[in-house]
Each structure stands twice: as structure tokens, then as C-alpha cells.
């Protein structure tokens, strides 16, 4: 059986090919799955997708008509998939429920520290042999307060790093994580967390209840000199509202590895094109804002775990087994 995989990065391709060797052939494509590219999958029982692929009802209908019965998503998030339509079409949908939480937590801290210590601005200056320190003053993290929205596996890893810095910990989640409490975390309301935290990091999934979790009102609650980091999902932040606050000169720094309208932009080379997204174009002009292209998970450790889990999901599907990774079981099950 040949599997077609969409949105495969150059570094990811050899890992996928090696992992599937001896099991199934895999055809790796760098294009993302959407309404235009869905016909490529005709004749493939299994389609492998990334988080920036579009799997709405019309795409799923095209896949189903072409013989696809299983979607193996190479990510934990699945907000890009219409699960109701998939169930109606009798498709099996599986994702990767776990991979290295340290990859994302460590990158979130890389963004936070780069923003705090003006690392990007300093590097740009030294390339021009400008070695002045004007405007590069940062601050210690030790003794300050880290607010963590979402204290699951990634949030917990983020807290452990914050604890190593000697920071006070405030948390917000639907349930307390005992490991975070053991680190000294105090669980509080979202409003108190935003008002008291010097650095706020987002580690919650994107769902209707968390869409624009950080909206205009939440942003105004934060300290003027706070640092905001998002390495989870772009839709957690109302970006237009964030731009409005940045225009007022607020926040020491903002580190974003995700963007709510990143589909069709992230993972692609747009350097020779005019960017039509005015919000993103304005966002990247602020000197205290860092934007990276959804790379927090992108370590050899995490990607290897994602690939291995994807292979297991496909093998389980072919063998009629169901694991915790299955979001929608086939109707035949």
C-alpha cells in the first residue's frame, strides 16, 4: 500500500521514509492538503497530514470519493479537521496524542528570553558592526512571576524551567497539576494571572472555548511591561487587538511561534511575494515582537516521536486495532 503524505518538511522526509520502510510505501509531498490538492490523494486508502493542512467537509468529501478511509495527522492538534464530517463519511482519524513536551516548552522560553534580552535586535546590530548597548537593556527573570495558561505536559515542562530561574508561578487551568503545585504554583483566575504576571505563556489547546482567550480585555489586564509568549495555537490570541496594544507602546516583548491566520503562509517561502495579510505585516514591524513559523515542536527528538506514532497509527488501522490516538473510528469498527 502507498500512503500519500502532505506538508512534509525537507528534514522530516527521510525520517518518514525510514520509519515506514518494510511496512508501506510513502509518497512525501511538500504541498499542503486543501481543496485544490485533494485530488492528488485519489486511490490512496491512507492520507497523512500536518497541522496546516485543511480538512474541512469539502476536502474530506473529495478524499472519501477518491477512496481514502484513514487520515493520519502528524500533530497533537486537530482543529483543522472537521471530525463530524469525517465520522459521517466513515473515516478513521488518528493523531499523535503525545510527543516531547520539552521541545515546545524550551522553545517558548527561547522566545521569552530573546524578547526579554533583545537578542534579535542585538544580532541585527552586530552584523552591521554596531556594538552599542543603547536600547538593549533587559531584566532578570529571577524573582519575577511567570503566568502559565494551561498546565498539561507542555505547561508543566515550562513551569520546571521557570522554577529553575527562581520565578514565582501562577497557573490557570480546568484542573490543577500536582507536579506544578509541588513546584510552588498557585492556581488563580485568568484575570489575576494576567494582572500579576511579568511573563505570560500560553499552553492550552485551541477549541471554541479558548478561541481568542487573550482578547482585547485580557490584553488590557496585563502589565504594560509584560512579556507574552504563544507557542500553542494562533487562535488563542486576538491578533488585531494585540497590534492595537502594541501601537500604544505596551509590552516589553511578544514572542509568537503561531499565528491565527498562518495557514497558507507558514512553512512556505513567501519572500518574493506581497503579503496581503495587513495584520501580520504590521505585527512583524514592531521591534519588540518576534514571530517564528510554528517551529517549537521541530526537534529531532519530537519529530521522531511524531513519525513513530504516525506509523503505529497506520499499522493499527490496517490491523483493525484502536488506540488512544484515534479521534474518529471508522463506522465499520
UniProtKB/TrEMBL annotation:
Pfam families: 2-Hacid_dh (PF00389), 2-Hacid_dh_C (PF02826). Keywords: NAD, Oxidoreductase. InterPro entries: D-isomer_2_OHA_DH_cat_dom, D-isomer_DH_CS, D-isomer_DH_CS1, D-isomer_DH_NAD-bd, D-LDH-like, NAD(P)-bd_dom_sf. Its EC number is 1.1.1.28. The keyword Membrane does not apply. GO terms for molecular function: D-lactate dehydrogenase (NAD+) activity. Residues 8-327 form the D-isomer specific 2-hydroxyacid dehydrogenase catalytic domain. It is an enzyme of class 1 (oxidoreductase). The keyword NAD applies. Residues 111-296 form the D-isomer specific 2-hydroxyacid dehydrogenase NAD-binding domain. Belongs to the D-isomer specific 2-hydroxyacid dehydrogenase family. This is 2-hydroxyacid dehydrogenase.
